[in-house]
Protein: Alpha-galactosidase
Organism: Setaria italica
Amino acid sequence: MEAKALLCCAFFFLRLWTPAAAIRSGWSPEVVEKRATLQNGLGRTPQMGWNSWNHFACNINEQTIRQVADAMVNTGLAKLGYEYINIDDCWAAHDRDSQGNLVPNPSTFPSGMKALSDYVHGKGLKLGIYSDAGPETCSQQMPGSLGHEEQDAKTFASWGIDYLKYDNCNDQGLSPQPRFSSMNTALLNSGRNIFFSICEWGIDRPATWAGVGNSWRTAGDIKDEWGSMTSNADSNDVWAPFAGPGGWNDPDMLEVGNGGMTTEEYRSHFSIWALAKAPLLTGCDIRSMSKETMEILSNRNVIAVNQDALGVQGHKVQKDGDQEVWAGPLSGGRVAVVLWNRGPAEASITASWSSIGLRASAVVDAHDLWTDAVTSSVQGQLKATVGTHACKMYVLTPK
């Protein structure tokens, strides 16, 4: 296929009140025009993997990246779908070379990025890298790609890079849409399919134009705190109609295992991200994670909700103070439900069939995704007692 043909984007529509998506109660029953889908064949389900920033920030080197790739395989996470090993800011030298090329920092990545990508690919994984739509990255320790989009995209392709996180710092007062579109065009012309992750922080409504990317941030940087996580979940929820195969809303990377929240809070974090079809990019040190962290990140049932082929983002459908119900349709007529208690005390939460898109007469089997217990022949509503800052997550299968 010629490069120009790759630039075409297909516009399509999402009817909010079809049976499969009737779950989006509270939204106007109208046809919503979605963003164009990036035609690079990637992101048919939300991306899964690891990113260096949340735990390591700028303290990265090639040995750490190799060890993380080893751990991704040795822990079994790779077999569950965690495939991207993404290097964030601070990997490059402060200045470009005499030809204007980005070069890895020789003190931290002495073997170069091609050797590192070969190592990661040899593990059956994919390597991601970072740049910025400004003259410098957010750390101001390395050059950004503004004005060098074609050159940098070809460099990334020559190194065997599979994923680009593209940040929005030092924007020179320029609109984000043309800056991110320029890198999209450059990646499509690079000769390699590279997943394009737009990190615009949701400021300029990227869900409405980010068909130039495979995912787009809908909120500011997450912190390893309950309030930050819940805020990002709410900001992301606004844009639910715009997500789907090929392009996903991104409330930022996972903080599970970094130590700032309780196990129940991390379980809620992972559950809501999975239901919302958010990228599952873990940000902890997987080389030394706890048993509890591993149990959360490796829950096959929850991952299956995130990776469901229907690709419809779950949505907050019911709220009573601090008690919430989030739900979304799955393939095969099933429904995923999260009963989420954001309050300071244990509470009873009830999800009615009408709020989650089931017929009043529906009889379902309710599979608790965290305990693996199944309750048969549930009718009319789903009710559970939920601890503080905790959740219950289910898949309901009509009989």
In short: The chain has two domains: 48-307, 315-398.
